[in-house]
Amino acid sequence: MSTNKEFMYTFINGEITDALIVMDLGNAHLIYASLGKNKPSMLKIAKDDFNKLYKKSHTDYKLNSITDEILKKHPFLNDTIEEYGKLLNCEKHYYDSDIKYDFIFGTPFQRKVWVQLHKLAAGKTISYGHLAAEVGSPNGQRAIARSCASNKIALLIPCHCVLNNKGDFHGYRWGVDVKKQFLQRL
Question: Is 90 noted as a catalytic residue in this protein?
């Protein structure tokens, strides 16, 4: 017997970049957030990510666009959309966000990294090496980098706050320029 999940997505325009966010209709929790300017490409990548995830679990899901009609039926979705828009435009930051989220992607190790990153103090950055030590894997800098690259909840899980061990900008799933711009506004 398969389970059915209903997820809703919308695009949010931002000053630095745009975002695609996906919420679980059942609880309005954010489960996916991606950054970029090419909306069709962002949606295709999201669908591919969800297809891979749910093919493994034999779960059926629907990924539907949020319409005005859906917002009227489920007004609680607006809160997450508005709050994420504030994150995207640096009016608010991950450390003071009220967005509820669920990790449906990622390995247990990746989730451990993401939880630790979400605890990062306001306005701070961290090195891959320091983060590796904090999660109990002092030689796991590459695993930390892979975990950051696999993050499916952009900005709320602040992978943009991870720098290389020299304190320099190094890689970011959505581009180093985007990373720099978000860090400048911390």
Answer: no
Computed over every residue of the chain, the mean pLDDT equals: 90
The pLDDT value recorded for residue 167 is 65
Q: Which of 90, 148, 159, 161 is catalytic?
A: 159
Structure tokens at 183: 């860090």
Of 138 and 34, the structure prediction assigns the larger pLDDT to 34
For strand 126-127 and strand 162-163, is the pairing parallel, antiparallel, or unpaired? parallel
Is residue 79 within 8 Å of residue 30, measured between CB atoms? no
Please tell me the distance from the alpha carbon of residue 101 to that of residue 32, in angstroms, as a whole number: 9
